[in-house]
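hey all, quick one before standup. I had two proteins in the batch that finished overnight and I want to keep them in one place so we stop losing track of which output belongs to which input. First protein below, input sequence then C-alpha cells straight from the run.
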Amino acid sequence: MHVSILRASTHFDVVTLIHIAVLFPTWHRPSVLLLEQAISEAVQSLIPERINENTKNREEWLTAAKELRFPYWDWTHPDTGKEGLPDIFFRETLELLLPQDEDPEMIGEVENILKFYHFGDQGRPAGFRNIFEEYDDPNSPDTKRAKMAYFQDWKRTYRWPSAKQHDPEEDYVQLNDRLKGTTKLPLRGNWRELTNSVARLFCFPDPKKVIEAQHPNVWDEFSNTRFQSAKKGANEWIPGQPRWKCGSMEQVHNNVHSVLGGTGNMNDPDYASFDPIFFLHHCNVDRIIAFWEHVYPEYQVGDGKYWTYPDNKKPGHFTDYWGKYGVPRGSEIASDSHLTPFRKEDGSYWTPNDLQWGSAAAKSMGYTYPPIPNPSYPDMPEHAVSLEPVDAKTRLEHAKILKLHFAHGVSVDNDKAHLVSVQLNPHAFGGSYTVEILYTTSTGELEYIASAAAFTRSQESGCAGCKARREAGETSENVIVLPDDVVKKIRESWGGDPNATNEVILKESLRAQIALPLEGGVVAASSKTLGTSYNPAGATLAARAISDSPEARSLNFKLEDYQKPVIKLHSVPSAPRAPSAPRAPSDVPLGSRWEDRGAVLNEWF
C-alpha cells in the first residue's frame, strides 16, 4: 500500500473540504493510511540502527517493526462510560520497553507523545490564526465573556484549554465527566449517546429490499450530515425523498470532536489533526465504517446517481457543490472520483473504488480489525463478527449482532423507536457548537439526553468552500436516539392525560438549547425551557449575528432565522422493515417508514 501527496499546497487558504460531503468516510481512509505509512517507514529505518546481533529478542523487534499498524481508541467501549478518556492520553509520561543486549528488560520513561503535539522551535505552520468571539453575560450587563482559541500563539495542542494566551490549563476533569455523562455543564456528550448512535447505523434495511437505484441514497444518509440526495440546493429539504433516519457516521464523529476539544484543537477542523488523539479517533471511525461496509457492501456511491421522488425520471447526481483542492466547484462525484490530494505509487489518485472494504484493491491496505464479539455469546469467538467475506444472509445476521453490541439502553426489538432529528446550519455561529436535547422532569428540572454537534471552521478560516457554504446557508441533519429508559422516565414525569401517546408526551416534554465551547456557553434555549422552574445562567445569553465584516457584527438576544435549528420528533420501526419483495422504481420509495411527528421546538430565545 502506498499513499503520497504530490504538489499539494500547505497553505490554509487551499483546503480539502471533505466534511458534510458524500466522500467523508472514504477520504479519511487514505488520510489515516498516509500517517500510518510514514510511522511504519520511520520505525523500520530506526529499529535496525537500535539493535544488533546480540539484542535480546532481535527477531521479535524486527517483526514488530514490520507489522506495526495504527492503534484505535474505541470510544464505544463501556470503559469510556465508567472512566472517561484512557489515561494514556493525558498522563505526563509513558513507560516503554526498549531494545537492549542484556537482562533485565530495560524500561524507559519518556514524555507522553499522545498527550499533545509540540510545534517545536519552528513554531506554528503558516496560516494559524487566533479565534475570538465575544458574548454578553446576562447576569452582569457590563461584563463580556469571550471564546478564545490562541492557535497562533499556543506552542502545542490543547484539549479543553482555559482562555489564556500562553500555557493554558487543560480541564481533563470536565472532559472525563462529559464522556461519563456526569457533567451538568453545557456542551455535553457522553459514551452512551455515542455508542447508541453507532448502533443506529446498523438499522438500514436489507439491500435486497431496497431498489438498486436507491442504494446511493442509503450511502448518502450513512456517510455524512449534508444528505444531498434529500435536498434541493443547500437547504431545501424535499418531501417524498427516501429517508431511513438511521443517522450518519459523520454525526457520531462530530460529537467525539466536540467532547474532546472545547475551544482546543479537536473542535476546529483547521487544527484538529495536529492533536495526536485525532488519528486514534479516526482509526476507530474507520473501524466502524469497515464493519458497516462488511454488512452493507451493496450501498455505495456507485455512478453517483441517486433516486429522486416520485418516479426517478430525473435522477439526481452527487456533486462537489463547493469544490476543494484539485476538484472544481460543481464537479460530479462517483466511485471513481479522485480522493485528492492522495496519490498511489504511480502518481494517480486514489478513488472510492480502490478503498471500498472487501474490494480487491483494498486488500493491499495491509490492515484489518479484530472481530467484534456477539453479546449473546461473548466467550465464543466462532459467533463473533469478523471482516472475513460471508454470504448475504450471514451479513444480515451480523448487522443484528453489531446493533446489539453497540446498543446501550435501547431495545432493538421494540415495535417503535423514538428519534429526534436536528436540522441545523453548521456555520450559524461562526464555529463549532452543539444543539442539546433535554427533557423536563416532574419537578420542572431539565435532564440531558443527547446532542448534535456542528464541527465547523471559524469565520477566520481561509477555507473558501466554507465561506461559500456559509453564504448559501448550507444545512445538515443529525439523528438522536431516545433511549427506552429515558422515554419511560419522561412518561412517568408526565402530569397530563395518562392515556396520551408517547408521541404527544415527548413533544410536550422535549426541550433544546444551543451551546458554544465557552464557560456557561448556552446562547439560546427553546422558549418552553424558560419557565419559572428553569432559568439557568446563560439561558438568555446573547447570540452573535454572523456577517463577513467583523466591524458589522452585532449582539442580539433573538436568533436570526438561519441560526434556528429545526427539531422534529419521529417514530420509526426499531428494526426497519421492508415489503417482502423489492418494488419497481416507479413505486413509493422503500425505507421511508419513519413517521414525521412535526416540529417540536419552533421558538427560540
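OK second protein, same deal, sequence then C-alpha cells:
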Amino acid sequence: MPWKAIPYDDDKREMLQSMYKVSGIPSLKVLKSDGTVIDNNATSSPLNEAAAQAWVNGGACKKGCCH
C-alpha cells in the first residue's frame, strides 16, 4: 500500500498535527478521501488484509476482527 507521510520540515505538518491530534510518533491514522478519520490509532492494528478490508468498509480494525 502506498502510505502518505508528511515530511518533518513541511509547513502543513503543524496544522495537520493539530487537526488530527497527533501527540507523538510513530502515528498512523487511516482517513477517508474527504479527511474523515476511520481509525485514529492504526499503529495498534495489524497491517493485514482483514484490517485493510475493515478500513475499506469504513470501520476501524477492532480486537477480534483483524487480530
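Flagging for whoever picks this up: The helical segments are 13-19, 49-56. The first strand starts at residue 30 and ends at 31.
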